[in-house]
Amino acid sequence: MEREVIFQDLGLIDYQQAWNYQEKLFSESVQQKITNRKNEGVTSPTLPKNHLLFCQHPHVYTLGKSGSLDHLLLDEKELAAKNATFYKINRGGDITYHGPGQLVGYPILDLDQFFTDIHQYLRYLEEAIILTMEEYGLKGERNPGYTGVWLEPETKQARKICAMGVRCSRWVTMHGFAFNVNADLSYFKNIVPCGIEDKAVTSMEAELNQQLSLQEVAIKVKKHLSTLFEMTFLN
Questions:
Q1: Which of 55, 162, 168, 194 is the catalytic position?
Q2: Does pLDDT of 10 surpass 80?
Q3: To the nearest 5 percent, what fractions of the chain are helix, strand and coil?
Q4: Annotation marks residue 168 as catalytic
């Protein structure tokens, strides 16, 4: 069964604005599920709408619930000097960076309509990135014990290319992945990325030594997500 998912490309959008929008869609889905449960056996349930948001953000650092503030290596003045902002947020994971040239994906999905397995959900997100990289001749891999997508994960040259952090409540997801396509990697030097001190960060541009079309990469990621999750996108 193909599940319908509303797709939106939000372009370059302020992090707080995108977060507020995510929270709105997330809350609507959760509330619909609560309503369905209250009316069980009385009326036919209305399935929550599923969404996939793609965007880029101006320079911003975000810290997940399990992260340490010590992993941000800048004070307020230094953040301002780099035109960057900082948010503590309600996803899992530690600290990461978002910025122009990075493809950020926020699936707001009712996993009851797909499968109720958060580990499978994360593996599918990773697989969409791995399959996209393969189309460019790059071997993306999982790193045992870590979430996200890496190159040469079990060597001294291990480097992360896609970070992931999600929130899930009543099997509704939010937050998602950040795929370094043409991102300015110098901004990662101001944090301990994902709380991992001894691993590097990379991008498609750095690996291929050329800037890529972010739109082209986004189309490929969207295609693979569609296949893995058996989605039909509504624009």
A1: 194
A2: yes
A3: 35, 30, 35
A4: no
